[in-house]
Amino acid sequence: MKIALVVDHFQGKGGAERLEMTLAEKLSTDVFTGYVLNESFNLAHLKVKTVFRRMNSPFIRYFFQRQAFRKIAPELAKYDVVIYFGNSLDSAPLLPKTTKKILYCHTPPRHIYNDREYYLSKFPWYIRPFYQFYTWMYKRNYEKLVKHMDSIVSNSVNVQQRLKKYTGFDSVIVHPPCNVKRFLWKGQKDYYLSFSRLEEVKRVDLIARAFTKIPDKKLLIISGGPELKKIQQIAADSPNIQVKGWVSEEELLDLIGNCIATIYVSLDEDFGMGAVESLSAGKTIIASNEGGFKEIVGEGTGILLDETTPDKIAQAVQSLTPEKALAMKSTCIKQAEKFSEENFIIGMKEVIESL
């Protein structure tokens, strides 16, 4: 059976990129993607074809991206199954019925559904009518294209419910995979860790502000993104906070394996693969009590915050001592096994075989 993956882009080392890479490896698929940035994983061992170059403007990119992904339809028609990730679905209506089409939904596009008003508020009043037209057109096209799917998979209960609420589409759940043999306990040093992308919705600034209030606790931030300078400014006068930016894969594994605990406070996180990776290394979690974290952080594996503020984060850090975190080690590892690569591949094979 010939399988192809169609991915918007590879532009970082996040959970979505890792999932797509894992599926391509395990099922020996070909990959069609918009572009691959140097900051992402090394994909040299995979069969990857890029179809357009990156453009900074999301509005301009949207139109060029649609055309680029339409043009690969003749190539995709040669495959038995095409699995789409993200929003680059434009080839779907052009494929024969014999080619089965699956959408793996990390989330329905936030900027046209649940976060639309938030993004709209970022524009000056005279730009908003154009943005409203853009999102209306995007929404209409997205839902029209999703109707061509033979099956839809959501990565979590949270995303399944969100997809149903905003589009009416039903889906099955296959949780993203974690290589539980790769993220390992290596010890316990004296720092807490954040490795979420530095984007506004990840709210890493709240974590940094929390640690300015508890100078006796160390925080290490190992990621990059548009909020990097903001985070650096918050941490500038706090020697207990170190902002390292992106690190190598080897260093990432070492830093996760040696921390006291990891912290995630993303706004309505779709799933939260970083949290699963932490659990796999026997590391307990402090997370906001919303989104996918509610599915990941089980009893005895961490602290869920009902209020996501610097003060509440600081209180949680102070209460989660190294001794308490160490006592949760075995429970964390057991919880992570629910999200193993083996279970993910079994789930995806079941979806493919059901078509």
TrEMBL record:
<protein>
    <recommendedName>
        <fullName>Glycosyl transferase family 1 domain-containing protein</fullName>
    </recommendedName>
</protein>
<dbReference type="InterPro" id="IPR001296">
    <property type="entry name" value="Glyco_trans_1"/>
</dbReference>
<feature type="domain" description="Glycosyl transferase family 1">
    <location>
        <begin position="183"/>
        <end position="338"/>
    </location>
</feature>
<dbReference type="GO" id="GO:0016757">
    <property type="term" value="F:glycosyltransferase activity"/>
</dbReference>
<dbReference type="Pfam" id="PF00534">
    <property type="entry name" value="Glycos_transf_1"/>
</dbReference>
